[in-house]
TrEMBL record:
This is Cysteine hydrolase family protein. Keywords: Hydrolase. One of its GO terms (molecular function) is hydrolase activity. Pfam families: Isochorismatase (PF00857). Its EC number is 3.-.-.-. It comes from Massilia aerilata.
Length: 193
Protein backbone atom coordinates (compact mmCIF):
# COMPACT_ATOMS: atom_id res chain seq x y z
CA UNK A 1 0.00 0.00 0.00
CA UNK A 2 1.14 3.53 -0.74
CA UNK A 3 2.50 5.40 2.30
CA UNK A 4 0.02 7.90 3.69
CA UNK A 5 1.10 10.69 6.04
CA UNK A 6 -1.16 11.90 8.83
CA UNK A 7 -0.68 15.64 9.23
CA UNK A 8 -1.91 16.95 12.59
CA UNK A 9 -2.12 20.72 12.58
CA UNK A 10 -1.68 23.07 15.55
CA UNK A 11 -2.81 20.82 18.38
CA UNK A 12 -1.11 23.10 20.88
CA UNK A 13 -1.95 24.15 24.41
CA UNK A 14 -2.92 27.62 23.19
CA UNK A 15 -6.03 26.12 21.58
CA UNK A 16 -7.51 25.88 25.10
CA UNK A 17 -7.08 29.61 25.76
CA UNK A 18 -10.20 31.23 27.25
CA UNK A 19 -9.51 34.23 25.00
CA UNK A 20 -10.57 32.24 21.91
CA UNK A 21 -14.16 32.46 20.58
CA UNK A 22 -16.64 29.58 20.95
CA UNK A 23 -15.70 26.50 18.95
CA UNK A 24 -17.47 23.52 17.38
CA UNK A 25 -16.86 19.78 17.32
CA UNK A 26 -15.88 19.10 20.94
CA UNK A 27 -15.10 15.49 19.97
CA UNK A 28 -12.40 16.48 17.49
CA UNK A 29 -9.50 15.76 19.83
CA UNK A 30 -10.76 12.23 20.50
CA UNK A 31 -11.01 11.59 16.75
CA UNK A 32 -7.54 13.01 16.15
CA UNK A 33 -6.23 10.74 18.91
CA UNK A 34 -7.90 7.71 17.23
CA UNK A 35 -6.22 8.57 13.94
CA UNK A 36 -2.90 9.21 15.70
CA UNK A 37 -3.02 5.79 17.37
CA UNK A 38 -4.02 4.01 14.14
CA UNK A 39 -1.17 5.62 12.17
CA UNK A 40 1.38 4.77 14.85
CA UNK A 41 0.17 1.19 15.10
CA UNK A 42 0.45 0.81 11.31
CA UNK A 43 3.94 2.34 11.24
CA UNK A 44 2.76 5.05 8.85
CA UNK A 45 4.30 8.55 8.94
CA UNK A 46 2.92 11.17 11.31
CA UNK A 47 3.72 14.86 10.84
CA UNK A 48 2.99 17.21 13.75
CA UNK A 49 2.61 20.85 12.73
CA UNK A 50 3.12 23.60 15.28
CA UNK A 51 2.35 27.29 14.78
CA UNK A 52 5.03 29.67 16.02
CA UNK A 53 3.56 33.17 15.94
CA UNK A 54 5.53 36.29 15.07
CA UNK A 55 3.16 38.30 17.29
CA UNK A 56 4.30 38.56 20.93
CA UNK A 57 0.66 38.77 22.12
CA UNK A 58 -0.38 35.50 20.41
CA UNK A 59 -1.24 32.35 22.37
CA UNK A 60 1.34 30.74 20.02
CA UNK A 61 4.21 33.14 20.76
CA UNK A 62 7.53 31.39 21.47
CA UNK A 63 8.61 30.92 25.08
CA UNK A 64 5.21 30.39 26.68
CA UNK A 65 3.02 27.34 27.32
CA UNK A 66 0.50 27.96 24.55
CA UNK A 67 3.04 27.07 21.88
CA UNK A 68 3.66 23.58 23.32
CA UNK A 69 1.91 20.49 21.94
CA UNK A 70 -1.04 19.24 23.97
CA UNK A 71 0.02 16.25 26.08
CA UNK A 72 -1.89 13.67 24.04
CA UNK A 73 -0.34 14.90 20.78
CA UNK A 74 3.34 15.12 21.71
CA UNK A 75 5.34 13.70 18.79
CA UNK A 76 7.58 10.68 19.29
CA UNK A 77 11.31 11.21 18.76
CA UNK A 78 11.28 9.72 15.24
CA UNK A 79 8.18 11.63 14.06
CA UNK A 80 8.54 14.70 11.88
CA UNK A 81 7.71 18.13 13.33
CA UNK A 82 6.97 21.14 11.13
CA UNK A 83 7.10 24.65 12.57
CA UNK A 84 5.21 27.29 10.61
CA UNK A 85 4.70 31.04 10.93
CA UNK A 86 1.72 31.33 8.55
CA UNK A 87 -1.43 29.19 8.28
CA UNK A 88 -0.16 27.03 5.37
CA UNK A 89 2.11 24.20 6.63
CA UNK A 90 3.86 24.06 3.23
CA UNK A 91 5.09 27.68 3.19
CA UNK A 92 8.80 28.00 4.11
CA UNK A 93 8.85 24.71 6.06
CA UNK A 94 10.39 22.10 3.75
CA UNK A 95 7.30 19.88 4.19
CA UNK A 96 6.85 19.28 0.46
CA UNK A 97 10.50 18.21 0.08
CA UNK A 98 10.26 15.96 3.16
CA UNK A 99 7.21 14.18 1.72
CA UNK A 100 8.70 13.78 -1.77
CA UNK A 101 11.97 12.40 -0.34
CA UNK A 102 9.95 9.59 1.27
CA UNK A 103 7.73 8.90 -1.72
CA UNK A 104 4.63 10.07 0.14
CA UNK A 105 1.86 11.19 -2.22
CA UNK A 106 -1.16 10.69 0.04
CA UNK A 107 -2.01 12.94 2.98
CA UNK A 108 -4.64 12.91 5.69
CA UNK A 109 -5.15 16.29 7.36
CA UNK A 110 -6.66 16.88 10.80
CA UNK A 111 -6.43 19.60 13.42
CA UNK A 112 -7.31 23.24 13.79
CA UNK A 113 -8.64 25.49 12.63
CA UNK A 114 -10.75 24.18 9.80
CA UNK A 115 -11.10 27.48 7.94
CA UNK A 116 -7.55 28.64 8.55
CA UNK A 117 -4.51 26.34 8.82
CA UNK A 118 -6.37 23.16 7.83
CA UNK A 119 -7.95 24.76 4.77
CA UNK A 120 -4.75 26.58 3.73
CA UNK A 121 -2.65 23.42 4.03
CA UNK A 122 -5.19 21.20 2.25
CA UNK A 123 -5.55 23.68 -0.62
CA UNK A 124 -1.79 23.71 -1.19
CA UNK A 125 -1.58 19.93 -0.87
CA UNK A 126 -4.24 19.54 -3.55
CA UNK A 127 -2.63 22.14 -5.79
CA UNK A 128 0.73 20.36 -5.47
CA UNK A 129 -0.86 17.10 -6.62
CA UNK A 130 -1.02 15.23 -3.33
CA UNK A 131 -4.01 12.91 -2.89
CA UNK A 132 -5.50 14.64 0.14
CA UNK A 133 -8.20 13.77 2.65
CA UNK A 134 -9.50 16.19 5.29
CA UNK A 135 -11.16 14.49 8.25
CA UNK A 136 -14.29 16.55 9.01
CA UNK A 137 -14.86 15.35 12.57
CA UNK A 138 -11.14 15.53 13.42
CA UNK A 139 -11.06 19.29 12.81
CA UNK A 140 -12.67 22.24 14.56
CA UNK A 141 -12.87 25.99 14.32
CA UNK A 142 -14.28 29.09 16.02
CA UNK A 143 -17.20 31.43 15.44
CA UNK A 144 -16.41 34.37 13.18
CA UNK A 145 -18.07 37.35 11.55
CA UNK A 146 -18.42 37.08 7.80
CA UNK A 147 -17.33 39.90 5.51
CA UNK A 148 -20.81 41.44 5.72
CA UNK A 149 -20.62 41.58 9.51
CA UNK A 150 -22.95 38.67 10.32
CA UNK A 151 -21.73 36.48 13.16
CA UNK A 152 -21.43 32.89 11.94
CA UNK A 153 -21.37 29.97 14.34
CA UNK A 154 -18.27 27.81 14.51
CA UNK A 155 -20.24 25.00 12.88
CA UNK A 156 -21.23 27.25 9.95
CA UNK A 157 -17.63 28.36 9.47
CA UNK A 158 -16.46 24.73 9.70
CA UNK A 159 -18.97 23.46 7.15
CA UNK A 160 -18.21 26.23 4.67
CA UNK A 161 -14.47 25.54 4.90
CA UNK A 162 -15.09 21.84 4.26
CA UNK A 163 -17.35 22.72 1.33
CA UNK A 164 -14.56 24.88 -0.11
CA UNK A 165 -12.21 21.88 -0.04
CA UNK A 166 -14.37 18.88 -0.93
CA UNK A 167 -13.98 17.69 -4.50
CA UNK A 168 -11.72 20.59 -5.43
CA UNK A 169 -8.58 20.20 -3.30
CA UNK A 170 -9.37 17.15 -1.17
CA UNK A 171 -11.90 14.51 -0.26
CA UNK A 172 -13.70 15.18 3.01
CA UNK A 173 -14.39 12.07 5.10
CA UNK A 174 -15.31 11.25 8.68
CA UNK A 175 -12.95 9.40 11.01
CA UNK A 176 -15.05 6.23 10.61
CA UNK A 177 -15.04 6.43 6.80
CA UNK A 178 -11.30 6.98 6.74
CA UNK A 179 -10.50 4.09 9.07
CA UNK A 180 -12.85 1.81 7.08
CA UNK A 181 -10.91 2.68 3.90
CA UNK A 182 -7.73 1.49 5.63
CA UNK A 183 -5.54 4.37 4.43
CA UNK A 184 -3.24 3.95 7.43
CA UNK A 185 -2.51 0.26 6.98
CA UNK A 186 1.09 -0.78 6.39
CA UNK A 187 1.89 -1.58 2.78
CA UNK A 188 2.38 -5.16 1.69
CA UNK A 189 6.10 -4.48 1.31
CA UNK A 190 6.24 -3.31 4.95
CA UNK A 191 7.86 -0.02 4.07
CA UNK A 192 9.77 1.56 6.91
CA UNK A 193 8.76 5.21 6.97
Amino acid sequence: MTPTALIIIDMQKGMHSPSLPPRNNTGAEDNIARLHAAWRQAGQPVVSVRHISRSPSSVFAPGQQGVEFQARFIPLAHEHVVEKNVPDAFVNTGLERWLHARGIRRLVVAGVSTNNSVEATARTAGNLGFETVVVADACFTFEKRDFGGTLRSAEEVHLMALANLDGEYARVLSTEQLLREGLCERGAAGQDL
